Amino acid sequence: MEKRGAGPPVSKHPQSTAFLLAQVGAHASALFASRLRELELAPAHAGILRAIALGSGVSQQVLASRLGMFPSRLVALIDELETLGLLERRDNADDRRVYALHVTEKGAKALADIGRIARAHDDAICAALSEKERASLRSMLTRIADEQELTAGVHPGFARIADVRPAKSPQGRRPRATRSRP
Fold this sequence. Notes:
Number of helices: 6
Strand content: 5-15%
Oligomer: single chain
Structural class: alpha+beta
Helix content: 40-55%
CATH superfamily: Winged helix-like DNA-binding domain superfamily/Winged helix DNA-binding domain
């Protein structure tokens, strides 16, 4: 922030609220992805695990609909999470053609680790704000999200996931989701 005269500080940032939301959002998303690397997970994996934990036994088709993504794109991510032992497909008692998705014990531990990382991430991103300011910002952003008819708890980026490719890390295989360019 720059100061001009005796008045309040003037920011170097543009006055567009939408731009600042997009800028901070992109920054926060990139940092969160970086923080998840310690678990060898991508944000899409974390979001899918969370969604399955909230609705254990959900089918891939229902989950794809909730996340706003094509079922064919979800399958690759589900395959990766299953390979990592974080979730399992079980036969659906009502329809043998459909699998019910469940978080495994290892997946529950990963979710606890994701939660720890997410809380630290939230604290770091909002470090410049007091608790009262954070609550106020959260309330205002919730109003905007509701007015924009965003699905609560679902990142709109799921709709843009185009491809999933395994990436190599020095420690071994690390799955990551890639995004298409709009």
